[in-house]
Design goal:
Shape: globular
Number of helices: 15
Largest sheet: 7 strands, mixed
CATH topology of the largest domain: FAD/NAD(P)-binding domain
CATH class of the largest domain: Alpha Beta
Distance between the termini: 71 Å
CATH architecture of the largest domain: 3-Layer(bba) Sandwich
CATH superfamily of the largest domain: FAD/NAD(P)-binding domain
Radius of gyration: 24 Å
Number of strands: 21
Structural class: alpha/beta
Length: 469
Amino acid sequence: MTEPEVFDVVVIGAGPAGENIAQYATQHSNLTGALIERELVGGECSYYACMPSKALLRPLEIAATAAHIGGLSAPTLDRRALLARRDEWVSSYDDSGQVEWADSAGLAVLRGTGRLAGERRVELTTSEGTRTIEARHAVVIATGSEPTVPEVFAGSLPWGSRDATGVDEVPERLVIVGGGVVSCEAAVWMTALGSAVTLLVRGDRLLNRVEPFASEIVLKALRDMGVDVRLTTGVTGCTRDDPQETGLGRVHGGPVVVSTSQGDISADEILVAAGRKPRLDDLGLETVGLSAAKALAGDVPSWLVLVGDSSGEAPLTHWGKYRARVLGEQIAAKATGGTKPFVPDDVPVPQVVFTDPQVASVGLTEAEARAAHIDVEVTHVPWSAASGAALLRDDVEGGARLVVDRAKRVVVGATFVGPEAGELLHSATIAITGRVPVDVLRHAVPSYPTASELWLRLIEQLPAELLQP
């Protein structure tokens, strides 16, 4: 019998979270690490999600800014050049650069499908057969997430998010199902590329996890750019003429008819963005007495770690990488007898939605804070309240909001909606993470004229008693 290959840390899934946890577990500890990947090293974010979507959206944002500033004319969209820019940012779906990084970090890249095969053991299946990989200290599941596709779309071969970011053949008429981040962002670039987009939303607003005022601004912006947004519209059926597997980003066969609670809609393609779920199927969890539910609840043996989307935590690349850094250092500390890293309580999760305008939020919304029985003070100003923010566009729309815990006199939530709003978010994340009292924040002087003056306008609205030491 062939002896198993042995590493200190074995990671199933070489996306951003998997790469980071392997790096942080091994870089200062002399531990060895292996990354097992069945697709592309770098994962969903690098090739099919964050990077291609932002590569498509950023030029459109610049064009919109030029169209809304006196003295400039709107640039002309070059569809071929825009898609070429996307292809460049995804390295034309070639992961050799990521593999070179792993090699330079001392990490072994093992191609194939990994699944648990007992305590600290992973079965690696490749085209050449199956072999066993053993971990001295930890096995990490970093397999990401996968789209959830409701049964109503079975047989109609809908596009998924990968098709939308990898668009090659632009459909004349596109139906998008869902009101979340993927749907709203895709509606922007698909409209710009020439699709007549209909956005079907089951609920009564878009982006239901952000402040309602942000949802309203995005709704108006999408409609203004020509997107037919239909709220409170459920899908009851979907059929397609001659469904065909045609390749990434190409129309999957003949026309589609989508039956909804508001009537039928005909389109050339349908994109279903109805959420994602942790990818935990067929990972051999049963070989160590686990189910997916137990794993997501954290009921796992000490040598097994879940990180990134597969952990059930916030399905955001930056959050997965943060958790990977923390957990990687914890693995190293446990294996070497070192000191565990300090981790503050209640680290907030920031997020930017790259619509036009952008929505940047961190911490609790007003409703979430009140539901948690926090006595809050809420301040809100329009985006134009600061000259530096208003200068970004002549007819700027948007707003900013702080949610402040009155008892502790600290910010617990912040939302910014406007041009380049994402660049204001980290200051809010620092304020919340550092629990900086608002009477101290008022002395953080914003430069003039910049959008950061919105902070001053928000804090000025707080009651005087909260601004005293």
